[in-house]
Amino acid sequence: MLKASAMFTSILVPVDGSEHARKALSVACQLARQEDATLHLLHIPEELAHETTLVWGIGAVALEASREERERTGRQIVDRAAEAAREQGATSIETLIGQGDPARTILSEAKKRGVDAIVMGSRGLSDLQGFVVGSVSHKVSHAAECTVITVR
Known about the structure:
Blueprint: E1 10-14, H1 19-35, E2 38-43, E3 52-55, E4 59-62, H2 67-87, E5 92-97, H3 102-113, E6 117-121, H4 125-128, H5 136-143, E7 147-151
Parallel strand pairs: 1-2, 1-6, 2-5, 6-7
Antiparallel strand pairs: 3-4
Helix pairs in contact: 1-2, 3-5
């Protein structure tokens, strides 16, 4: 039987403040603790197709929010995710703000950082709004060159 310890030394976790992302972060933290892996927490500020979005205890962000406001909120999201990861025992954490199409950005960051795994929620905030055609997790799991763990 393969022992997991040889498998994951760095894990990319896309976070958007959704419940699915929180669950994925929790699974990634369990893996990181076992493996002493580095967690790369990635947030991609998106313009969502509805007036406001509730994000990780930060409150609503208006659709017409400027890019700077979305990035500031994004910074808060990854900072809160890092805080949550530390509370769950992760010790090596890097936070990133990406830009562009979520699936493509997740894939390119994973490749650039040479991560062993991507742990992500099965749905994100934009998926819940029917904004994304073909879910991000579906696209990532089919195109990634590393292990992808999708958390429901």
